[in-house]
Amino acid sequence: xxxCHQTNGRLRLRISALHRDRGxxxxxxxxxxxxxxxxxxRANPACASxxxxxxxxxxxxxxxxxxxxPVRA
Length: 73
What we know:
The protein has a single domain, classed as Alpha-Beta Plaits, CATH 3.30.70. The chain is of the alpha+beta class. It has helices spanning 22-33, 58-61, and strands at 2-7, 10-14, 38-44, 49-54. The model has no long low-confidence stretch (mean pLDDT 84). The protein is built from two helices and four strands. It is flat and about 35 Å long. The protein starts with a strand and ends in a 12-residue tail after the last helix.
């Protein structure tokens, strides 16, 4: 996993396991959507990328995220 781009409230990751695998993409999207502070998630298997929009602020810094990786088939 590699961070491709990050701005305040938005993150784009390159994840090789996503490449051309819609099942992995769907599982990652579902797992992240259930996390506190996540506003939107979009996986693109064709590009092996994952975009996450998240809340910015002090409340998020106190949030403990549940582990979601590795995603099992």
